Q: What sequence folds into this?
């Protein structure tokens, strides 16, 4: 089953990105440095040269954990990159829509 298409579209304002609905009303304020596409109600965002995280269509974080890089969801998962040699791991992995 294909993921539900999002009603939200990214917009740029003063070099920041947010999301508007089909009527043009701002749903998520333009406060992000970069954003992905909503797929299945989730997208990645990046704020202020820092780490990436995922939000839902209300702008709420999917999980507290953040990543060095995140990619759009496809088939229920999103690829993520995390480099943390001090914690004993580095490389790519996948996150599902529950944050696991």
A:
């Amino acid at each position: 089953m294909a993921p539900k298409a999002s009603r939200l579209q990214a917009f740029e304002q003063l070099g920041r990105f947010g999301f508007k609905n089909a009527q043009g009303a701002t749903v998520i304020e333009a406060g992000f440095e970069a954003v992905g596409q909503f797929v299945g109600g989730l997208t990645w965002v990046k704020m202020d040269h820092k780490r990436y995280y995922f939000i839902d269509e209300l702008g709420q974080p999917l999980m507290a954990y953040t990543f060095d890089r995140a990619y759009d969801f496809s088939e229920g998962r999103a690829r993520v990159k995390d480099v943390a040699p001090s914690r004993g791991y580095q490389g790519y992995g996948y996150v599902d829509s529950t944050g696991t």
Summary: The two ends are 21 Å apart (CA to CA). The mean pLDDT is 89. The CA atoms of residues 81 and 92 lie 4 Å apart.
